[in-house]
Amino acid sequence: MQILRHSEQTLKTALISKNPVLVSQYEKFEAGEQRLMNEAFQPTSDLFGPITLHSQSDWITSHPEAPQDFEQFYSDPYRNTPSAEKRSIYIQSIGALGNTRIISEEYIKWLKGYCEAFFYGLTVKLLEPVSVSATRCSFRINDNTQNLQIHAGHILKFLKKKKPEDAFCVVGITMIDLYPRDSWNFVFGQASLTDGVGIFSFARYGRDFYSSHYEGKVKKLQKKSSNDYSIFDNYYIPEITSVLLLRSCKTVTHEIGHIFGLRHCQWLACLMQGSNHLEEADRRPLNLCPICLRKLQCAVGFSIVERYKALVKWIDDDSASTPVVAPRHSREDNVNLPKPAEAFKDWREWIVKCLAILQK
Ligand SMILES: [Zn+2]
Ligand SMILES: [Zn+2]
């Protein structure tokens, strides 16, 4: 295992910068906020540690990129900032997300609530769910894994057309695997930063995708024609476990981070680290390092304390915010499923430590 350790000075400059305007902006943060962010360059910090590399296939080794410090982010003319008119993040589900309508509805509300806390100060709205056929995207059966896949670029075009006036961005989520082009095996997600749209699949986040008895395999013969979407009817959907919920919250916030213009983090262990495979994605934390936190705070303008409190509240609230009361639902539908938040326990403990530093 290799440890990517930067000097205190390097981290301090990456966070605060040497530009006098940005230094004085930093000094305007509350004392507690500065105390927390300064943990970035405390070698003994138990909140922020270095990035560890476990294999040659890890992201940083296989995809060398230029690092982005706070100043580079701040002065990037192409980054996206929510305006007073465009402060909503929209989530569009494509195809069923859970094995019943209730699970699909609750699950997307959990994700919405998480994004609302994470991007504290922005509004998160749900678009009416659509079927795969409604997007008119191309699809295929993957030759290696035999699962159904939909064309990521076609979905992005669909989302761009549907983008509401007040949208900062629209993110599509689906339980169907994605492919970006014929020659590629698969992709976890794809985004267009200029259009402010992204599509992410959680098909591979279930517990059985990589097992030999994965139930999403289809026989070639089952495919009728390239525009017969009935193949998606009752197609296999992984169970919404706590781990799947955590992985999807992690992916969506990482990817929306990119839409704000945050590049892959190379400073400290951080949500914005790149990841090349599922094991590396699992290793990456749910939290932003102070450098990335300052970038997001600069774009959104939240209070760091209030944001952390909202995240704890989301973890503690055991079900989605709004009970199902619409009369069209039958009586047995009228339930709130408990939110499977067990996997967020470590993240909660970590946030509580941050709150202690912030409010000392
Ligand atoms: Zn990324
Ligand atoms: Zn970071």
From TrEMBL:
Kindly give the SUPFAM superfamilies that the UniProt entry links to this protein.
Metalloproteases ('zincins'), catalytic domain
Matching entries from Pfam families are given as: Peptidase_M54
Q: Which domain of life is it from?
A: Eukaryota
Q: Does the keyword Magnesium apply?
A: no
Task: Name the InterPro entries for this protein.
Answer: Archaemetzincin, MetalloPept_cat_dom_sf, Pept_M54_archaemetzincn
Cofactor section: Zn(2+)
One GO molecular-function entry: metallopeptidase activity
**Gene Ontology BP annotations:** proteolysis
Segment forming the signal sequence: none
Against Gene3D superfamilies, the record matches this protein to: Collagenase (Catalytic Domain) (3.40.390.10)
Q: Which UniProt keywords apply?
A: Hydrolase, Metal-binding, Metalloprotease, Protease, Zinc
Q: Does the keyword Metal-binding apply?
A: yes
The UniProt function text for this chain reads: Probable zinc metalloprotease.
Instruction: Please state which protein family the record places this protein in.
Output: Belongs to the peptidase M54 family.
Q: Which PANTHER family match?
A: ARCHAEMETZINCIN-2 (PTHR32205:SF5), ARCHAEMETZINCIN-2-RELATED (PTHR32205)
- Entry protein name: Archaemetzincin-2
The organism named in the record is Oryctolagus cuniculus (Rabbit)
Q: What are the leading ranks of the lineage?
A: Eukaryota, Metazoa, Chordata, Craniata, Vertebrata
